[in-house]
Specification:
- The structure is a single chain.
- This protein is α+β, with helices and mostly antiparallel strands.
- A hairpin with a 2-residue loop joins strand 1 and strand 2.
- The two termini are 31 Å apart.
- Pfam families: DAO.
């Protein structure tokens, strides 16, 4: 959107459509902090105007849910070894996009487990980028 808002959606199924606002919702640090959908005043108020703009004549909300996914501060992946534990690979901060990259992330994890050098330059995904 021109104002920087980012929405995503999934194809209609059973006359239903799933949409969400990528850069909206509740900001939490732990899963237990997440409140149910409609417990926060902005729930729905963020997505409904967008939906009505792109799909005029759309019906009302049949169901709402609060969903959680992890974000890194720069919204880019973190793929690195755990500091102090060089035998532990961390793949996190996928910002809601991990499922789309599952094949390559799996390949990276498999190569790590087998002691192989990754086929990809993982430098941009190092955890240390946040301490610079």
């Amino acid at each position: 959107m021109p104002n920087g808002d980012q929405y995503y959606g999934f194809p209609a199924e059973n006359d239903e459509l799933k949409i969400g606002k990528h850069n909206g919702g509740q900001r939490i640090q732990a899963q237990e902090e997440r409140k149910p959908f409609a417990a926060v005043a902005s729930d729905g108020a963020e997505a409904f105007p967008f939906l009505r703009n792109v799909l005029p004549g759309i019906g009302g909300c049949l169901h709402g849910a609060a969903c959680t996914y992890d974000n890194s501060p720069d919204e880019d992946f973190i793929i690195d070894t755990l500091p102090g534990h060089e035998n532990t690979l961390v793949i996190t901060g996928l910002s809601g996009h991990g499922f789309k990259f599952a094949p390559v992330l799996g390949e990276i994890a498999a190569d790590f487990a087998l002691g192989k050098t990754p086929s990809f330059d993982l430098t941009p995904f190092r955890l240390s980028r946040f301490s610079q």
